[in-house]
Amino acid sequence: MEIGRLLEDVRGALDGDLDTATRAVRRFAELLASKLSNSPCSAPARCGLAPWQKRKIQSYIGDRLELPLSGKYLAKLVSLSTGYFCHAFKESFGEPPYAYIARLRIERAKELMLTTSQSLSEIALACGYVDQPHLCRRFRRATGTTPGAWRRSHAIEP
After folding, report:
1. Residue 31 belongs to what domain range?
2. CATH code, domain carrying 106
3. Rounded to two decimals, what is the model's pTM?
């Protein structure tokens, strides 16, 4: 196999002939690049997250929506670089991490508005917003209406 032979060339040349070692390493890199470009998953981010990574991220985010969630920490959670994680996340979930988290927070706010009598300030904090005005800005941007108006229009009459 050519790769094995190249590795032996590099090992042997490292002690004495740096030019030969350099050429062998370049050839090795070319071989790897050609193998990767022929694989069905050549660009890692196009393949998205592994199923276990996806489950871990979904669970972690769902359990901690009230906390600040950074892409850097989420990437670390599944042992990926931040850049790779963001591309893989978008491939897996169809949207970037920030948009996904924002959407889940709005969904949680809607759920709490329908199922509890909590104030909008309490709901804002429970959904990871700094305060009620922050919730109102994000909610209006996502739905086109304020949380109070949405709550009134979706309230179930007794």
Report:
1. 2-39
2. 1.10.10.60
3. 0.69
